[in-house]
Amino acid sequence: MSYSLGNLPSFEQIRDAAARIAPHARVTPVLRSDALDALSGAELHFKCENLQRGGAFKFRGACNAVWALSDAQAAHGVVTHSSGNHGNALAMAAATRGIAAHVVVPEGAVRAKIEAIERAGAILHRCAPTQLAREAMTAEVQRATGGVLVHPYADTQVMAGQGTVVLELLQQAPGLDALITPVGGGGLASGAAIAAHAINPSLSLFGAEPLGADDAAQSLAHGSRVTTVVPDTLCDGLRALVGERNLDALRAHHVDVITVSDAETIAAMQLLWSELKQVVEVSSATVLAAILKRRERFAGRRVGVVLTGGNVDLQALPW
């Protein structure tokens, strides 16, 4: 399956998404830490999407996609594949509209995330832990139910919903001159880039990507989408290959992707727990790891740092 499922959202669509999700999504806080500022040499403003409904920014995109459906479309429910946070978010969003959510989950997904999807009321469908198996099972469920596919990161309405993070952040912390988000499939990174440059075209944009799943960094370096990377990282939320349209947005908005090792990310995760007092998952910590690894790129800047999720299996911490 080629991930050209939707066009990139416009800034107007991101603003529409903000209005659409306002009755359901939380406005998450922006936190500061003197200790982390000192370590980085920068002024860091942490947008805590780990405190979003469902424990991740994914609720924004899923909620926008669900409420953008016509009544006729919504009647058949929604379908997706997800290793965790997007499936949970879509199940919660579907519940706000009283419709069914079918989530295809690969074997080996984080147990805490699977349990959250079940608690949110989704109908689970298990598959082998490969991209091919996920897509095949998703297509089968779609045929059987007539449900609408809400792709984790290549859906226009999902990207628009994720971009609302930046609308909030730039109101809460005016005067930022840099922004960094994690990069997996690219739904957040692309939506954030579009929103950020519509508001402030001079904002420097960065992405943080695990070294063991560095397809976005490779793709930007090579000038075309690299699909041969086999993800090998503890960052379970960032194992997806970047989508084609998502990559287009990263390229168009000159997003500088910094790769970080799992060891660097775990160290950053511990710092966020101890200094910011926030439970964030390992994928979230890539942003702080990237800032500390490339201090020279951030020194003296006011940096918006998106902490994407906090769904951690406390029985299987990475340290």
> Strand content of the residues, in percent?
15-25%
User: Which topology of the largest domain does CATH recognise?
Assistant: Rossmann fold
Which stretches of 5+ consecutive residues score pLDDT under 50?
A: none
How many strands, what sense, and barrel or not for the largest sheet? 6 strands, mixed
What does this structure look like?
The chain is an alpha/beta fold and 319 residues long. The chain folds into two domains: 11-56 and 155-307, Rossmann fold; 59-149, Rossmann fold, CATH 3.40.50.1100. The protein contains 14 helices and ten strands. The chain has helices at residues 11-21, 34-40, 58-67, 71-74, 85-97, 111-119, 131-145, 156-172, 187-199, 215-222, 244-252, 262-276, 286-293, 295-298, and strands at residues 30-31, 43-48, 78-81, 101-106, 123-127, 148-149, 178-182, 204-210, 256-260, 302-307. A six-stranded mixed β-sheet has the order 1-2-10-7-8-9, sandwiched between helices. Strand 7, helix 9 and strand 8 (204-210) form a beta-alpha-beta unit. Helix 1 (11-21) crosses helix 3 (58-67) and helix 9 runs parallel beside helix 11 (244-252). It is globular. The termini are far apart. The mean pLDDT is 95.
